[in-house]
Specification:
Chain A has 276 residues and is mostly helical. Chain A has helices spanning 11-32, 45-51, 54-87, 90-105, 108-119, 124-131, 145-168, 173-181, 186-214, 217-224, 231-241, 245-275. With 272 residues, chain B is mostly helical. In chain B, helix 2 crosses helix 11, helix 3 packs antiparallel against helix 4 and helix 3 packs across helix 10. Chain B is globular and about 70 Å long. Classes of the chains: A mainly alpha (276), B mainly alpha (272).
């Protein structure tokens, strides 16, 4: 096929995305400024309810904080794992890679269920703590924010680890030896040589983890429980239980806007860092 | 060899310790689920007081677990169809993007990737609104349409990586030898990009099988999906069959992963 006509091959996906992705999102936006789901009349009521209500604002902030803390926790563990992968032999590399991919291929529901078993009253952590005599009664971990963050750290870690591994794969090990033989301390080598190379992966990972953790409906609901309010649960309740579609739409767009803003800020940060 | 100072050694130890915790947190839960699925207890104790196959027997009991079986069948069918649809659309698009040097291809690639970053919950709700506005009752076809939008970027990325390495001279010589575009695609292009296509289809399949946010809004009592059914079982009563179902899903994922890794080096493809 001639170079000029090759774009036609992209047409089916483009049309499918317009029809089944872009059009629904436009309708979502329209519904958020309508009086009801049939778009009978326009109204800003849903947006006033979303942005003018202390409870709703609080759940927006809760959701953003959950995403941010999960990004920090995954980075704290994924960066060291990626560094070990960088200097490891082929066998250990393979083990780390499989460990990174395996959670991604086990259903989110399965991973969430695992954390119920681990964090529960008779779960792994409480049994260990009681067995070691650290505490005498089970510590409540389910239905708490830190319990949820621990769980999301595992659930989302592959999204941070895989881009990091890809970014670090471009580092020539000779570069590390060169830095060390020139008298650079390990900290200096990491800071000056490894971090700049890892940054694109770190930023890509942070974006994916933030987007995924802030919209992780099942984990938030099952591990976080009813006392913690996050946007996805409010979107679902208003859409499927209360049937207030304009309000659900306004909240879904608020969630989308928050995630896109964070993703945009991160990508800006990445560009600035790569120019510095 | 590196001359480690005391500070270097402390830092290296810290990195190793954190990496160890990271590894444990990645793998531990999968092990915990597998062990729990054999528990003889009705409560989710860990370690279990004893071991039985009772929950697996319950899970495979055609009568008691009929709803789970229906949901699993629906999920598998939708996942296969999603993989076919998403991979076909993405393969064509990836070839166009790889072979074009025009600016539109960069813009299009960005747009095609958008579903990866947009919160799934927002898209799930939007899809529900769209289909109910079109007066479409819930059906497996709508679920495939929704899942395919989320799955397409995965396939686009893996096929795109394969297609970027295609030598245009090969395609030109095939054309020069008189092969039509379709024949060139089947005999030259497809075999060369096959690893990317297979990896993409696999990722699309898994992403559909695991999809929650779209199924949450588009599934119904007649078109129940496995993750939604399992979520319901976790929310209402502590049903240990969830552990057995999880065990089956973990085993399936592991077998698929090893098979795909052997075939096309999937793990490398996903990190690269």
């Amino acid at each position: 096929m001639a170079e000029g006509g090759i774009w036609r091959l992209a047409l089916p996906l483009a049309v499918a995305q317009m029809l089944f992705f872009a059009a629904p999102l436009l309708l979502l936006a329209a519904t958020s400024v309508a009086t009801d789901e049939n778009l009978r009349d326009w109204s800003l009521r849903a947006w006033r309810d979303t942005l003018g209500d202390g409870f709703h604002i609080e759940s927006v902030l809760n959701t953003l904080r959950l995403g941010a803390l999960t990004v920090l926790a995954t980075a704290l563990l994924a960066v060291p794992l990626a560094l070990v992968h960088l200097v490891a032999g082929p066998a250990l590399r393979r083990v780390i890679l499989i460990a990174a991919v395996l959670p991604l291929l086990t259903s989110v529901v399965v991973r969430t269920f695992a954390w119920i078993v681990i964090l529960g009253r008779e779960g792994v952590i409480n049994a260990t703590l009681i067995g070691m005599g650290v505490v005498t009664a089970p510590v409540p971990l389910l239905q708490t924010e830190h319990g949820l963050i621990i769980a999301l750290t595992q659930i989302e870690m592959p999204l941070m680890l895989l881009p990091l591994l890809a970014a670090l794969a471009r580092i020539d090990p000779a570069l590390l030896d060169a830095s060390a033989s020139l008298g650079g301390s390990l900290a200096r080598t990491l800071w000056k040589v490894v971090l700049p190379m890892a940054l694109p992966g770190l930023i890509a990972g942070a974006t994916l983890v933030f987007a995924s953790a802030s919209t992780a409906f099942i984990s938030q609901g099952v591990i976080g429980g009813g006392r913690l309010n996050y946007l996805p649960a409010l979107v679902w309740q208003n859409a499927m239980v209360v049937f207030d579609w304009p309000l659900a739409a306004a909240m879904a767009i608020t969630l989308m806007g928050s995630v896109l803003m964070v993703a945009g800020a991160l990508s800006l940060l990445g560009q600035r860092a790569s120019h510095a | 060899m590196h001359r480690f100072t005391g500070a270097d050694r402390a830092l290296a130890l810290l990195i190793l310790a954190l990496a160890g915790v990271g590894f444990l947190i990645l793998v531990g839960p999968v092990v915990v689920v597998l062990v729990t699925s054999f528990t003889s207890s009705r409560a989710l104790q860990f370690p279990p007081p004893g071991f039985t196959l009772q929950w697996y027997r319950d899970l495979f009991d055609a009568e008691r677990s009929a709803q789970i079986h229906v949901a699993a069948g629906n999920s598998l069918l939708v996942a296969v169809l999603t993989a076919v649809v998403a991979t076909s659309l993405s393969t064509a698009a990836a070839l166009a993007i790889a072979r074009s040097r025009a600016t539109w291809s960069k813009v299009a690639e960005g747009a095609f990737m958008a579903p990866l970053v947009l919160p799934g919950i927002a898209f799930g709700l939007a899809a529900l609104m769209f289909f109910s506005w079109l007066r479409q009752p819930p059906s497996l076809a709508l679920l495939v349409a929704g899942h395919a939008m989320i799955a397409a970027p995965f396939a686009l990325r893996t096929v795109g990586a394969s297609a970027a390495g295609l030598d245009p001279a090969l395609l030109e010589s095939s054309a020069a030898l008189g092969a039509g575009p379709w024949r060139t695609f089947r005999r030259v292009t497809l075999p060369l990009i096959m690893p990317g296509v297979a990896a993409g289809a696999f990722l699309a399949f898994v992403s559909s099988l695991d999809n929650v946010p779209v199924s949450l809004f588009l599934s119904s009592a007649q078109t129940d999906m496995l993750p939604i059914r399992l979520w319901g079982m976790m929310e209402t009563a502590l049903d240990v069959r969830v552990a057995a179902a999880s065990g089956v899903l973990v085993a399936l994922a592991f077998v698929l992963l090893l098979a795909m890794d052997r075939a096309v080096g999937l793990a490398r493809r996903m990190s690269g």
